Amino acid sequence: MSWAGSMMVAGAFTRCGLAAAAMYIVSGATAQQPPLPAARQSAISTPAPAAQPPAAGPPAAASAQAGISDRQSSLTVQQIVARQEDNFAKIKNAQGIVVHTETRYNEQGQAQTPSTQYIFFAYEGNRSVTLTMPEQAASIYRGSQGQVPWKQITAAYHVTGDTVYIIQKPEGTASTPTVVATSFNPAVHENNPLVAFHPRQVSDETLPLRDLAGAIPNMEQRPTVSDTFHDGKPMVRIDFINPKTPTERLYYIIDPARGYLPVEIGRVSGTQALSMSKIIIGNTPDGTWIPARRERTMYDGKGKGVSRQTWYYEFLAVNEGLAAKALSLMYFNLPLTTKVSIVGGKTPGGPQQPAGRPVPPLPATPTPLPQRTAPTPMSVPLR
What we know:
Elements: H1 3-8, H2 15-26, H3 57-65, E1 71-72, H4 77-88, E2 93-104, E3 115-124, E4 127-134, H5 135-142, E5 155-160, E6 163-168, E7 178-183, H6 186-189, H7 209-215, E8 224-230, E9 233-242, E10 245-255, E11 261-269, E12 272-283, E13 289-299, E14 305-318, E15 340-342, E16 358-359
Parallel strand pairs: 7-15
Antiparallel strand pairs: 1-8, 2-3, 2-14, 3-4, 4-5, 5-6, 6-7, 8-9, 9-10, 10-11, 11-12, 12-13, 13-14, 15-16
Helix pairs in contact: 4-7
């Protein structure tokens, strides 16, 4: 699914959209993977690789086969997820820039023009701001003292408590964006990185492992958890197999030494890889592990690479404090004439209002872009 496509379906990354993806495990239907937010690193000194055609399927499939007969682990999927959540709970606030690039390849294996999106984000508790735009718009944004090129944005959201503000780009000849406030809906907003990005989402599949864990009681066949070795290190492997399609498998390679986060996620059919994600895990100065970089290759039914996606942080600051205006609509430098329309009949924090009734103009105090010198560099062991 493209970034434009993800915007056509509000719940593309959410539990609403995830229900279809869950069918891969629960009922055997194959679900497509929509792109996640991006990931490069300025705080992480890992250079972005040059675009190369993805490798053919067999190497990935061989990796996918490893470890099936390893010793059964004493851990359960639910325990692994709980330890992941304990790790992420250390993050009280964060701000950063995440970059997502997708390169597709034609029948001859030649790379097409890459598509790149930048996600500018900040969050603390139940408040967040997320602004997504293509690479060209991001260049304009950087050089304009935080003035958003509204005509070119992909998405913009502010979440505060149980209210979601959707900032829509101007239509036609209009130059001022419109803002729609609606109630937070977990089925539509919770797992959507375009709405409220969280560092965990760099390594999330369409259906996150935490949601798969919750669906285990309804699965015809429970996943297996094994102790294994991966790249010479002790790891934990999770395999989900659907008895209706026993040759298809979704697997996770988990690093217990790094927050129980995945270092590899794959989907295979028989001996053929369908997708393969490699994840580099980094840690912040306070010892929180995060997925720092991800590369995901998709294969067709013949094992030929058809696309490659990368996510990496260009900038990331964790637990360094955020200004109050960085977690409000002021973050977006909205024009003074911007008005908010209410969906659902309730003004956020106020009395009942007719649906669509405008409220007074918003303040627009300029908010500077995050400074790249702000964060303390994370340490990422490179191999």
